Amino acid sequence: MPENDPELGQEGKGAAVETVRTVAEIRAVVRQARRRGQRVALVPTMGAFHAGHLSLMRRARAECDLVVVSLFVNPTQFNDSADLDAYPRDERRDALLATRAGVDVLFAPPPEEIYTDGFATRVAVGEIGMRLEGAHRGTEHFEGVATIVVKLLNIVSPDAAYFGQKDAQQAAVIRRLVRDLDIDVSVEVCPTVRAPDGLALSSRIVHLSPRDRGRATALHRSLTAAERLIAYGERNPAVVAAAAVRELRQEGIDPDYFELVEPETFKPLHLLEGDVLAVVAATVGSTRLIDNLQIHVPSAPTRARHNNIVAADARALRRPARPAA
């Protein structure tokens, strides 16, 4: 655990979070809460907590009586064993942060507790799981996500479950499966937490070199470039996406995709109107990052800052692009 970890600061004064390892233990804790008439929250995570995770925990703490955070690096959603092995893990640090955020229980089961001998059932999520991240990582990625989320919802039976907007396609998959399977839970999707320079916080950014950490801010800049172009009247998604990709290539980043999609289905759009979602994925150095931005398309272009924006974009386009790293 780094001595200068910015997330830790001073340890909280509350009681240390209780850690349980088995399905039977967590169900017993929840049963006791139900007998007391308490509202139960679940925050599913894979650990390596950062400020984004903590914002979910604090929201859950404000809205519910018992806050359960699951800490489980789910092997079935990784299409690359090296990526699974490299995923950061530090349970002691995570427990300290969970305590500070007011979490009651950390559910940290071993893989064999979740995927028992002979486990064979997977949850298929349809077309949404085949697009973008599903196309890049394989359909087994969102099947793995859906399967573990359904298991956790069945194990904990929360009143509300909290997810981050940064993983927008995952959140859409979860909203769909909860509707389709009639699971009695409120799905709460909380805003993306960003560093001061706009980078969306992620457990993976610890792998970025200092140089790549600076380059990675281009993902957010590409999203805001798209937002600006839409604000002053562009309605062709291909034109908007091309401008956003140019922003990335200024930093030598060749994205896996930059798309403008319908926020619930993730279908590509042919005309920009209403509420749209801009989504981007790219590898910076050796670290793959994703980000997104919710954009409301105004019925009439915003002209007040049009000239300044056009001038700024023109200057950006004149900069020579760096070669992809």
Q: Which strand order does the major sheet show? A: 1-4-3-2-5-6
CATH class (first level) name of the largest domain: Alpha Beta
Question: How large is the share of residues in beta strands?
Answer: 15-25%
Radius of gyration: 21 Å
Amount of helix: 25-40%
In DSSP terms (H or I, runs of 4 or more residues), the helix count works out at 12
Helix- and strand-based class?
alpha/beta
Shape assignment: globular
What does this structure look like?
The protein has 325 residues and is α/β, with parallel strands linked by helices. It folds into two domains: 18-190, Rossmann fold, CATH 3.40.50; 203-316, 2-Layer Sandwich (Pantoate--beta-alanine Ligase, Chain: A,domain 2), CATH 3.30.1300.10. It has helices at residues 23-35, 51-63, 81-86, 91-100, 111-114, 133-137, 139-156, 168-180, 210-215, 218-231, 237-249, 306-318; strands at 18-20, 40-45, 66-71, 105-107, 160-164, 186-190, 257-261, 274-284, 287-297. A six-stranded parallel sheet has the order 1-4-3-2-5-6, sandwiched between helices. Strands 7-8-9 form a three-stranded antiparallel sheet. It is globular and about 55 Å long.
